[in-house]
Amino acid sequence: MTESLNQVLAQVDRGMEESLGRLFALLRIPSISAQPKHAGDCRAAAEWLRKELADLGFEASVRETPGHPMVVAHDDKPSSGPHVLFYGHYDVQPTDPASLWHTDPFAPTLTRSVDGRQVIVARGASDDKGQLMTFIEACRAWKRVHKALPIKISVLIEGEEESGGVNLMPFLKANAQELKADVALICDTGMPNRTTPAITTGLRGLVGDEIELQCASHDLHSGMYGNAARNPIELLCTILGNVRDATGRVKLPSFYDGVQEPAETVRAQWRAIFPNDDLTLGPVGLSQAAGEQGYSAVEQVWARPSYEINGISGGYEGEGFKTVLPAKAMAKVSFRLVPGQNPEKIRDAFRAYVKSHLPPDAKVTFTPHGASSGFAVPQDGPYLKTALKALSDEWNTEAVSIGCGGSIPVVAEVKEALGLDSLLIGFAQDDDRIHSPNEQYGVESFHKGVRSWVRVLAGLSALA
Amino acid sequence: MTESLNQVLAQVDRGMEESLGRLFALLRIPSISAQPKHAGDCRAAAEWLRKELADLGFEASVRETPGHPMVVAHDDKPSSGPHVLFYGHYDVQPTDPASLWHTDPFAPTLTRSVDGRQVIVARGASDDKGQLMTFIEACRAWKRVHKALPIKISVLIEGEEESGGVNLMPFLKANAQELKADVALICDTGMPNRTTPAITTGLRGLVGDEIELQCASHDLHSGMYGNAARNPIELLCTILGNVRDATGRVKLPSFYDGVQEPAETVRAQWRAIFPNDDLTLGPVGLSQAAGEQGYSAVEQVWARPSYEINGISGGYEGEGFKTVLPAKAMAKVSFRLVPGQNPEKIRDAFRAYVKSHLPPDAKVTFTPHGASSGFAVPQDGPYLKTALKALSDEWNTEAVSIGCGGSIPVVAEVKEALGLDSLLIGFAQDDDRIHSPNEQYGVESFHKGVRSWVRVLAGLSALA
């Protein structure tokens, strides 16, 4: 096995120039899914991928949806190991503001970043074309050396991840039989620093709510009514400004029910990577973790539920001053949830808290904005252990399980539609500027990313 | 004296039809000071008033300022009593939204309001053309009957009260010698109900401040940072939502230093007029006084300092939801002040309170918005007593001293520039809709207003 693997890794190294060439070809296609004028480019990217996969021996097809098409490919000839479903997306974010790009976003360029890393600059370099190509090039190296993949592989590449992705779930459900596998592999995440490989095993969910308070029937003059008429902005501030206690803990009853502390071994790994909060907060101009006392910044983001006010509005917001005592005030609030928390119960607890603090003259209107649960990969499954081992071997550093403070909808969708757990493996860096001008992807991320997948596939093929 | 007075009052009654005709003529001039296209109309209103005053025997002139002109008139032939300076303003508010007016705002119309009162509907009917004409028509009746005023009278009518009034103070200072008198009479206030005449003896001042909090260096994704990065909206809410204690009292140190309780006799008068808060709050859809416990709604507005949040803004305020963790949040805050409070000390106390609640990662920027002291007329002066008696005689109801929750800048300005105390006497009603569509002034307000001034002038003439 080792010899077989080493041959494939050597092929990756030999073929890197050509691999980069193919990535650049894909990056040149401006497949911006949110902009209708790029619909043809989205289809071109799908077609390009279909051809690459077909050339590798996959049964590959471009499949229609009500939006941009999907690429589906299968190679079920191998007989050993589990059957994996790889997921990626070929669409990219819009590029505005154009003036902030140093080079054409769709003319990929090799350059060196300030820290000396060699990087590929282009829209989609990291999110997600560079990442998805690490997997395809790993498959290519296996095929080149051994004329076969080590395990059964299906590939699903969508074109609407950056623009709502409403067609993915129906497509998964409609094609559940065809897309069934043993585990999903998703390459859309990152590493906690330059040297430590990682698998994302926890994602936070989200429940959002909009709250509007009304007191008087119309805006009043603060001279004629100030003091006597209830001020809805002040009331909103008092309610929303006291959701956490002085230690940063959310005071809603039962808020932490079901929340699991991260395992001490995992916390120790995180502490080793982030010995202080400055590594996390310094780049955004902050120094102190603002959430619950007793948790580091990384723990607060990866493993603890949050409370945020995402927007607030009321009264006079323009230049100068108006002595208005407004009738209404509004805020948008959200809670990031960890596994074990029930979004609807959290919403109910929040609304009950607000209502319990309303004086008789105040009316409240709530508008829900989304509800999704947190997600966790069990730490003791064979796929996770195998993949961590493969990554550790490639990077010569112990791979870690990390969290992600945000949501990746496809994880919940493949679970619901196909019953699959996901392994989230990716090689992006925090400073890759995804969704921003001058998006980049390290050449090392790409090269060692391809090699990592070669090793993961080898590892999985050894499982029963 | 009584016979002399009764002759003048009878002349008022006889001449009411013509008095209304003159008021309508003034109301037809669209003297909107805030709109440059109406500059000529403002000048026409000033010229109209100059002519009326000159026809009455005043030495009257239209006087230039950097903005709209002033009207100044003097009649110093009488030898008895104090010399009064009457102040009013000929300019009016804009009329938008035009669609909400039932009649042309500058085509004054007599109609009946829902409660059966006969009212004059026009922009400026109450604020301030109707009110200032009560005084001029009172002078006219004295002149008609006795060929002379009972006391020396100077008149100052400005044209920028509704648009900042920045030229009044320089004008007062530049013409202080010419405008000197013993007391100022100002007709720009109202009555607490339909039947009780009043003199406004307390005005609240105002200190406004804008507060901007910044935490992170730029807007963040709430998934990547939510919990760990300080949320400036939440911080702003916590700070501004806890300025009052649970009893509605402002917690800033020394906030209530120097604040006088209203005299028990005055409170008793107020209680008689407003036996419950519903009279004050019911019309705006509220039922409970929201300020300090232990004070009625009217006491909270007329005699107690307030704390208001007049505007707040931060994060995403549009349709739908964004998972932004913003870098900044802003609020506009004001305190209405009563006599005894120092605006700058209150501002300092507020800023110190804010700063004392800032975590190390938060930066604050303050922008001042105005600072004026509260104002009180001494309750035992001879002019006040005389004027209250005159009003009581006219309305056959004991006249009361009332407060006003807002500011009337001219009161402080005539005090500072000319050394004059003011008597604020007016006949407007709370439902006159000043500054709003379908502004109105009761025919009774106008008629009994003229008669009231006839009596006030008679009363003042009897003083040494």
Structure described in brief:
The structure is a homodimer of 464-residue chains. Chain A has helices spanning 2-14, 16-27, 39-55, 129-146, 168-174, 176-179, 222-225, 232-240, 264-273, 278-281, 297-302, 343-356, 382-395, 409-418, 443-461, and strands spanning 59-63, 70-75, 84-89, 109-112, 118-121, 153-158, 183-186, 198-203, 205-214, 220-221, 308-315, 324-325, 328-337, 363-372, 375-376, 400-404, 422-425, 440-442.
Strand content of chain A: 15-25%
Shape of chain A: elongated
Greatest chain-chain contact: A-B, 83 and 83 residues
Gyration radius from CA atoms of chain A, angstroms: 25 Å
DSSP strand tally of chain A: 18
CATH superfamily of the largest domain in chain A: Zn peptidases
**Secondary-structure class of chain A:** alpha+beta
- State the name of the first-level CATH class of the largest domain in chain A: Alpha Beta
Structure report:
2 copies of one chain form a homodimer. With 464 residues, the first copy, chain A, is an alpha+beta fold. Chain A has 2 domains: 2-202 and 375-461, Zn peptidases (Aminopeptidase, 3-Layer(aba) Sandwich); 205-259 and 305-372, Alpha-Beta Plaits, CATH 3.30.70.360. Helix content of chain A is 35%, strand content 21%. Chain A has 15 helices and 18 strands. Chain A has helices at 2-14, 16-27, 39-55, 129-146, 168-174, 176-179, 222-225, 232-240, 264-273, 278-281, 297-302, 343-356, 382-395, 409-418, 443-461; strands at 59-63, 70-75, 84-89, 109-112, 118-121, 153-158, 183-186, 198-203, 205-214, 220-221, 308-315, 324-325, 328-337, 363-372, 375-376, 400-404, 422-425, 440-442. In chain A, the strands form 4 sheets. In chain A, strands 1, 2, 3, 6, 7, 8, 15, 16 and 17 form a 9-stranded mixed sheet that branches. A 4-stranded antiparallel sheet of chain A has the order 11-13-9-14, with helices on one face. Chain A has a 3-stranded antiparallel sheet with strand order 4-5-18. In chain A, helix 1 (2-14) packs antiparallel against helix 15 and helix 4 (129-146) crosses helix 15 (443-461). Chain A starts with a helix and ends with a helix. The model of chain A has no long low-confidence stretch (mean pLDDT 95). Chains A and B meet through strand 9, strand 10, helix 7, helix 8 and helix 11 of A and strand 9, strand 10, helix 7, helix 8 and helix 11 of B. Strand 11 (308-315) of chain A pairs antiparallel with strand 11 (308-315) of chain B, so a sheet runs across the interface. Chains A, B: Keywords: Hydrolase, Metal-binding, Protease. Chains A, B: Pfam families: M20_dimer, Peptidase_M20. Chains A, B: InterPro entries: Cyt/Met_Dipeptidase, Peptidase_M20, Peptidase_M20_dimer. Chains A, B: GO terms for molecular function: metal ion binding; peptidase activity.
